UniProtKB/TrEMBL annotation:
Cofactor(s) needed: Mn(2+); Mg(2+)
Record's bilayer topology term: Peripheral membrane protein
Localization of this protein: Membrane
Protein name: protein-serine/threonine phosphatase
Record's catalysed reaction(s): O-phospho-L-seryl-[protein] + H2O = L-seryl-[protein] + phosphate; O-phospho-L-threonyl-[protein] + H2O = L-threonyl-[protein] + phosphate
Gene3D superfamilies per record: PPM-type phosphatase domain
Assigned GO CC terms: membrane
InterPro entries: PP2C, PP2C_BS, PPM-type-like_dom_sf, PPM-type_phosphatase-like_dom
Pfam families attached to this UniProt entry: PP2C
Amino acid sequence: MGICIGKSPRPPNASHIYYSNKPAYPRKAFVQIKKKDSRGRVEERVKVSISHTEPLLCVSEDLSMNFSVWGSACILPGIDPHEKVFKTCQDLCFFSSNGQSTILGVFDGHGKEGEHISNFCVKEADEIFNTCIGNFEDRPIELLSSIFETIEKKLKEPNSVIDIANSGCSCALALVHNNILYTANIGNSRAVLGTYNQSLSDASRPVTFSEEKYFLREIAKRRSSDLEKEPIPYQLTVDHTTNNKEEFLRILKSGGRLQQNSDKYGNRYGPYYIWKSYSNIPGLVVSRSIGNIIAEDIGVISKADTATHSLSIEDDFFVMASEGVWNVMTNQDVVNYVAAYKDQAKRIIVPYENCREISVKEACIAQLICEEARVRWLALVENEDSMIEDISCIVLEFDQKTERRSHTGYRMIMERISTLNQNKKKEVSG
């Protein structure tokens, strides 16, 4: 699959990739990282070769219920371009269906135990859905809240082997049940509906006030697709970060200290981090999280925001993703991309090896969004010398004009969870 050639040519420069309007994704690239002086002027450029990580998870399945639904999911592990730090992937996502209802979740761990917390969250969410959905038939939103509450309670138990004092997880869940979409979130994983319902154009949850980076704005223009009609991005979740004014003020009122990082010249930059008044912990951007109990007294809580939306024939698709997508793509960028390429994307995934480039017709739409986000991360690497974040995404494609297909229910394979559980047991016994 892809362009698979034994002897690879010289990798392209990153700027040639992200300033192109071609939706193609080389596995290797050269970046030129800018080193700047105290005034932000470029003093030198350091050339680094990046070999992209392969998907940790990539799945595409028929999730049809009483109408046609296709689901795809992908996780791309992040990387340190300098290869000085081994970056463990702390993202995990899943979907599960019983033929009548479908649940999906994105979990973005942080801190030393972040990988194990996201693993625990997925395992518990999947199990609770499949064993308890019958008890919540007439109150689905309570099921989502109950999942978060149960996870938090179990992680706080004295016999828990996961330390959640200064580690945690951003979580987003969605449930499709009786043609209604329910969402619940804690942290900064986001869920957006791609719709053509004009009445929703002004009804979306407010997007946080983070400053848009000029080079990402220019890249978005260059890589935009010509659409006859753009979908409306209807955000159902709330971003629980210090970029959210209400959350910023809530943390201050709770006694937290908010401060930006500073460079070696003393210039402040980036988002505000949450600290205790007289100590350098926890250093969070997310204002709500499962875990991070050391920061509960300064307002870092695990209370979820929820939303309900009755699906209509004008609702085309639904995207749920971690910050690895939303940090470099706007809601409009994402829904435009899905609308432009979902019909060309591959639904039956075939493993590929030794490919130097992935194109639209050789990956599912969830992977394509992750690949597109990673291309834009290359610009952040060059301009801000940053790491590439873990990137995870789930896409549901709706077709309410199509009758339900033969379907017996589907549960995403959990190999990574089993492996992590075994490793954690070894750590504890050792």
